[in-house]
Amino acid sequence: MTVVVDLAELASTAGLEQELDRLAKSHKIIRTRQLNGQETWTVLGAALTRELLSDPRLSNDVHRHAPHGALVPGLAVMLLEQDDPDHARHRRLVTAAFASRAVRQLEPRIAEITDQLLDKLGDRGTADFIEEFTYPMPLEVICELLGVPAEDRDPFRQWAMDISAAPSLEAMQSAAAELFGYCIGLIGAKRERPTEDLLSELIAARFEDGGALSDEELSSFAAVLLIAGHDTVTNLLANALHDLLTHPEQLAALRADPSLVGAAVEEALRFRGSAMTTVNRVALEDVEAGGVVIRKGELVRFLLNAANRDPEVRDDPHAFDLGRATAQHLSFGVGPHFCLGQRLARQEATIALTEILRRFGTLELAVPAEEVRWLPSDAIRGLVELPLRYAR
């Protein structure tokens, strides 16, 4: 019998991971219901995830093969919703831009943004760290990366909020359309007056045949970088703080040896990764996998948080342990669509956790752990708020 799970409803509870573990013991693939009501095949196991993420029979080009499963219906998203050879061609160009001086020199600015936000908190008090830090910090970094003028950042923040927490599909599409429209204007301004940022690098970049990215492609990439790069880091930081504070022995180990911060980031990614599921893919033909037949035209996605806790991959997967080897986690995917922004996400999380723990000798949840509320999302694993008590 096929299991159908309302993932957003389940994600609103602290018991998501335990329920996924229970399901994964008897199912490698389940059916999940998305926020718009449609159902998709959803892969749980690590081995099957690795296999199918590289399977060319599953297409990312949902706009062509299954428009109802698109990330933003009506707006094709560069890279995320492309197959090879177009995907490989665009990815080479973007990868080169990510290696540019504008990106390499971003680290001091990340540290400066972190310091400015933590300065606003003062030496002691109680605050929602999502509102005061983990939300604005990656947003400012993305705006710096893209070269968004300071006076335009408030609308950018509102679009990001509206897209990630829209009450309806229509509201999300409206916010996405406004964001895409803004990006078109920003691209036009940078064509006339380039600055040292990723968007200017991409405008100047050329394919092997001398061609360039269109305004629509550039706008699509800028918008998805804002949405994906902002939401995932916001919730990665909040989840990491939550899991360190609810595992005091691991927090003590990190305070005693700050060089473990890299291990803390990797374990946070594995233990409760913020990018809970991938975008939809569509079967180009019937595919037998995990004991089911995925029919041609059906949607498929991957529940990375379940794969990261697969007991066939690691012992005691539900323990939060900075001492474990986490190199095999799947939080950034695998295969042709491996996350391009993984280095930046790791960089932001490392700098933020290091500075927060350096500044605040006292850091604790300001409410009982059982009262912390989780986002009802079928794509992002995160908290509604993170009220913390802190002091130097």
UniProtKB/TrEMBL annotation:
CDD domains: CYP107-like (cd11029)
Superkingdom field: Bacteria
Keywords carried by this UniProt record: Heme, Iron, Metal-binding, Monooxygenase, Oxidoreductase
Keyword Iron-sulfur on entry: no
Signal peptide from the UniProt entry: none
A Pfam family that the UniProt record links to this protein: p450
Keyword Zinc annotated: no
Protein family (similarity comment): Belongs to the cytochrome P450 family.
Identification of the protein by name: Cytochrome P450
Species of provenance: Streptomyces siderophoricus
